Amino acid sequence: MEKHNFVTIADITKEKILYMIEMAREFELHPNREILKGKVIATLFFEPSTRTRLSFETAANRLGARVIGFADPKITSGTKGETLKDTILMVANYADVIVMRHFIEGAAQYASEISPVPIINAGDGAHQHPSQCMLDLYSIYKTQNTLENLNIYLVGDLKYGRTVHSLIMAMRHFNPTFHFVAPKELAMPNEYKIYCDKNGIKFEEHTEFNEETIADADILYMTRVQKERFSDLMEYERVKNVYILRNEMLANAKPNMKILHPLPRVNEIDYDVDSNPHAYYIQQAGNGLYAREAIFCDVLGITLDDIKNDNTII
């Protein structure tokens, strides 16, 4: 079967995004199969994770694959001085696909260049998070019945937020209007605003976060302020509670508006929002299973037709 990497969302076409969404929809209808029976998936998490790691491992298990790997790099030979190159080459001896999260930007791209088996980027520093982006796109499509012409509000940590960086790149095909809502310390980096200009993506910037600011949102994408990205903890303390979504702020929200969040949350969404019909972040996390099942099949050359004609459904 054809094999390729899933490292960046930047070079994925509009047609491929819609194709992957259709694959995810097929897996939501029938998530339990044995289409990957006999395959071994390695999950190498050099950085902490709950949802991403567990949903990748669940996706592999539900498709009949076996899972090896680690969630704590302290238990690996990296503590003895083994390089990332040698770790990847060794693990490639044992696995058909490597899922990797790393704290260094570009680590997944480097791994893809040296690995004989496909690499799936599960997040590299503050750079990209393409598998999260696919589940975000699937969640947006499910809730809005389209990806076209949406008002998408990105709120919070836009400086270090790899999920919002990936979403901007993916949505370039669908004529969005982005609203960047952040304090100046966490504003969207210039490189992504330049990217928007070059790709004809409309955007506005805001520092205020209130009921009036978000009233026109189709998607309200909240993010946490990521303490682990700050070298200056005083700066983190200044901005950590700058934007908190409260239930009363949703009084004038559009009927179709949905609240997304890549999770984990700290305190940027009040718990009383959870019961609001606009809240979708828990369901969003659940969609990660179907999106990541689709990603596994795609990197292993399993097509949408293969999935539709699959007779291994359990």
Describe this structure in words.
The structure is a single chain. The chain has 314 residues and is α/β, with parallel strands linked by helices. The protein is built from ten helices and nine strands. The protein has helices spanning 14-29, 51-62, 84-92, 107-114, 130-144, 162-170, 190-198, 233-239, 281-299, 304-308, and strands at 40-45, 66-70, 97-102, 119-124, 151-155, 177-181, 202-206, 219-222, 258-260. The strands form two sheets. A five-stranded parallel β-sheet has the order 7-6-5-8-9. The longest helix has 19 residues, at 281-299. The protein is globular.
Q: What descriptors fit this protein?
A:
314 residues, single chain, 5-stranded parallel beta sheet, 14% strand, 10 helices, 9 strands, alpha/beta, 4-stranded parallel beta sheet
